[in-house]
C-alpha cells in the first residue's frame, strides 16, 4: 500500500510517499526558518499560513518524483499532534480532504512516534528492542521501544527540552535562530574547559532531565563576561558555546547509557532535531562502541521534522495491524498536547 504523509506540526512542511512493501518512494520539505528568523522564533500564525501555501505544491512534487498518481494512494497520514494547533490543522484538513475525495482511510500519526521510528528509514536498520533518546525542541525523553506501538517511558525532562536549552542559551548569547545549529557551529572553535557549567541531574539516580537551570548559568556567565570585557568577543562566545554544548551532551549521553544498561539492550537510537548535533553523535558512538553496543541515528535530513517519518510511522502501524482501515468517517480532531502513551498498544506503555 502506498501512503501519502503530511507533517505540519511546527515550522516545516513535509510531504512524503512511503510504500508498505518498498519503503520511502519520495519526500519533499519546506523549512520556514528564513521566514521566522527576523522574529527570533516561530510565529504560529505565520507558520499556519505558510503551510497552506506550500502543502499542495509539495504534494504535486512528491507524486511527480515517485511517478505515482493520486488514485494509487491507499491511505493518507498526517501529524495529528503534538504541535501548534493552527499548523496541525493545515496538514490534518488537507490529508482528510484528499483521503475523503479518494475514499481512502486517513491515519492520524503522533509526531514523536514519527521521530521514534525514523532511524528505521536508514540502513542498517536497528532491530527491536532498543532504547530511544528523543531530543527535539519540545521533548526530551528516553523510551524503551520493544516494537511498533510498544513504547515505555523510562525518563523525561522535568522542565525545558534539550533543544530548548540549546535555543535559549543561544538567544542569551545573541546568536541567530534557530539557536541549536548556530550554537553548535560556534562551539567547534571554542574551548569548553574555560567555563564550568552545571550538569543538571547528572547524579539524580533516575533517568529524568532538567535543563532550565542551565540557561540561568549561561546568563550568569554572559553577564560576568560583559562586566569584565564589555561586549563579548567571538572567542568568548565560542568558548561559552562549547561549554554549553558540552554540558547538555554530557547529561544526554550519561542518561542514555544508563538507560541502555538498565533496559538490558544493546542498541541505542537517537531521534529528533538535537540528534543532528555532531558532538552528541561522536560522544554516543564512541561510548556505545566501548560498551559493545551500537548507536543508530536517522540520516541528518530525517533528524529534524519531515514528512517521511510520518508516512513511514503510518506504514509501520498499518503493517502491525494497528490501524482500522475500514474507518471512513473522516471526522477528525487535532491534538496539540498528546501523550505518546495514547498510541501504545494497551498495557505495553508505562513509566518504569
Ligand atoms: O525535531 P525538531 O526539528 O523539531 C521539534 O519537533 O521540536 O527539533 C528542533 C530542535 C531545535 O531546538 C534546534 O535548535 C535543535 O533541534 N537542533 C540542534 C541541532 N540541529 C537542530 N541542536 C543542537 N545541535 C544541532 N546541530
Ligand atoms: Zn519534531
Brief rundown of the structure:
The protein is α/β, with parallel strands linked by helices and 352 residues long.
Task: Write up this protein.
The chain is α/β, with parallel strands linked by helices and 352 residues long. The chain folds into 2 domains: 154 residues, 2-Layer Sandwich (Nucleotidyltransferase, domain 5), CATH 3.30.420; 171 residues, ATPase, nucleotide binding domain (Nucleotidyltransferase, domain 5), CATH 3.30.420. 43% of the residues lie in helices and 19% in strands. The strands form 2 sheets. Strands 3-2-1-4-5 form a 5-stranded mixed sheet, with helices on both faces. Strands 8-7-6-9-10 form a 5-stranded mixed sheet, with helices on both faces. The relative contact order is 0.18. The mean pLDDT is 95. Bound molecules: 5'-O-[(R)-(carboxyoxy)(hydroxy)phosphoryl]adenosine (KG4) and zinc ion.
Amino acid at each position: 500500500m502506498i501512503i501519502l504523509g503530511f507533517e505540519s506540526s511546527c515550522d516545516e512542511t513535509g510531504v512524503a510517499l512511503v510504500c508498505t512493501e518498498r519503503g520511502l518512494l519520495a519526500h519533499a520539505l519546506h523549512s520556514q526558518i528564513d521566514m521566522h528568523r527576523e522574529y527570533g522564533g516561530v510565529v504560529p500564525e505565520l507558520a499556519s499560513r505558510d503551510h497552506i501555501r506550500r502543502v499542495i505544491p509539495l504534494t504535486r512534487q512528491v507524486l511527480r518524483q515517485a511517478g505515482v498518481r493520486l488514485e494509487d494512494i491507499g491511505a493518507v497520514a498526517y501529524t495529528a499532534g503534538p504541535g501548534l494547533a493552527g499548523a496541525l490543522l493545515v496538514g490534518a484538513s488537507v490529508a482528510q480532504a484528499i483521503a475523503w475525495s479518494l475514499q481512502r482511510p486517513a491515519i492520524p500519526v503522533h509526531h514523536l512516534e514519527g521521530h521514534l521510528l525514523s532511524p528505521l528509514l536508514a540502513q542498517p536498520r536497528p532491530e527491536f528492542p532498543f532504547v530511544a533518546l528523543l531530543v527535539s525542541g519540545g521533548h526530551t525523553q528516553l523510551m524503551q521501544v520493544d516494537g511498533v506501538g510498544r513504547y515505555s517511558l523510562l525518563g523525561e525532562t522535568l522542565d525545558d527540552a534539550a533543544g530548548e536549552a540549546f535555543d535559549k542559551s543561544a538567544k542569551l548569547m545573541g546568536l541567530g535562530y534557530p539557536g541549536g545549529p548556530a550554537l553548535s557551529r560556534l562551539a567547534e572553535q571554542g574551548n569548553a574547559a574555560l567555563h564550568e557549567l552545571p550538569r543538571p541531574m547528572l547524579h539524580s539516580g533516575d533517568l529524568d532531565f532538567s535543563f532550565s537551570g542551565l540557561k540561568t548559568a549561561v546568563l550568569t556567565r554572559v553577564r560576568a563576561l560583559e562586566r569584565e570585557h564589555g561586549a563579548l568577543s567571538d572567542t568568548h562566545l565560542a568558548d561559552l558555546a562549547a561549554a554549553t554544548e558540552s554540558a547538555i551532551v554530557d547529561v544526554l549521553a550519561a542518561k542514555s547509557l544508563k538507560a541502555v544498561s538498565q533496559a538490558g539492550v544493546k542498541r541505542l537510537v537517537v531521534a529528533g532535531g538535537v540528534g543532528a548535533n555532531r558532538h552528541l553523535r561522536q560522544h554516543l558512538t564512541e561510548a556505545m562502541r566501548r560498551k559493545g553496543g551500537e548507536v543508530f541515528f536517522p540520516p541528518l535530513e530525517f533528524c529534524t521534522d519531515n514528512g517521511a517519518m510520518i508516512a513511514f510511522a503510518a506504514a509501520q502501524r498499518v503493517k502491525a495491524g494497528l490501524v482500522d482501515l475500514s474507518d471512513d468517517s473522516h471526522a477528525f480532531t487535532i491534538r496539540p498536547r498528546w501523550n505518546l502513551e495514547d498510541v501504545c498498544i494497551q498495557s505495553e506503555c508505562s513509566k518504569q
